[in-house]
Amino acid sequence: MNTKHNMQLLQELAIKNGPLCVGLDTDPSYIPENILKQYKSAPEAVLAYNKAIIDRVAADKSACCCKVQIAYYEAMGLEGMKVYAETLKMVRAAGLIAISDIKRGDIGATSDAYAKAHFKGDFETDIITINPYMGFDTLVPFTKYSKPEDGGKVAFVLLCTSNPGMVDIEHQELKSGGLLLEHVGDEIARIGEEFKSVYADQTCGIFGAVVGATQEKDARYLRDKYKDTFFLIPGYGAQGGAARIAATLLDHAGGTVNSSRGILCAYKKDAELTEKLAAGTLTMADIADSAARASLFSKDDLLKAKASL
Length: 309
Hints:
Blueprint: H1 6-17, E1 20-23, H2 33-36, H3 42-60, E2 65-69, H4 70-74, H5 77-93, E3 97-104, H6 108-119, E4 127-130, H7 140-143, E5 154-160, H8 180-194, E6 207-211, H9 216-225, E7 231-233, H10 243-249, E8 255-259, H11 261-264, H12 274-279, H13 284-307
Parallel strand pairs: 1-2, 1-8, 2-3, 3-4, 4-5, 5-6, 6-7, 7-8
Helix pairs in contact: 3-5, 3-13, 9-10, 10-13
């Protein structure tokens, strides 16, 4: 039985290994053609690609978790979903926390089914992402798996995302005052308080918040407003979010900063691999080495930015 919920375990591992989250949003197009053709299918190549990167990142202790975006695996059909399940197993077996980026959220009975699907069985994971915009009652079924006897499963709730269109909904002002995203943030914090009676020594709430690293004006305000909420921070790296914004969001309860293409496709900008890339002679080991270098660089970049605040 867990004596700590998974969000706290992630918080502790982020302190130990650094705050980097490696995003396994692995599209077959990321894999060089000469490597892709060595496998029977694109999904099989993706699994090997994921394994090579997970093994290196875990060995180097350059990341605390991996975020697996389910859409890329759904797009590969049934075989892709098998790769999704195996990838989650590999992440957890490597001693890292597995975050399933599924962004579910629906009426009670449907959310019950989503929770069962991703907290038990073939697609079991440690943490999922939830979309709260159908109402807060859609969050409740996921908390049923958050108690120690049920595995301490937890979730990141969308709060202030990294896409430009977030202002269309998340930044809308309520008649009662404040922004919609603040209403969501307050509920995330409330649920965290509610579980203090279950986890008396918790250092962050069972629900974390997704807060993008692309909006500098929001970062300090949200970090100070929700001091006890652990953040999942997208937008760093390929999406243009600066390390200083991400570092601001790492204050107080902390967070984990996601980088996907910056790690997965690091080989494309790796000066050590220019000749091999041009000649079509890259190996999977070359890609894993490049991903490992990019992970260590990102970890160091984030820690330096945090130390400079």
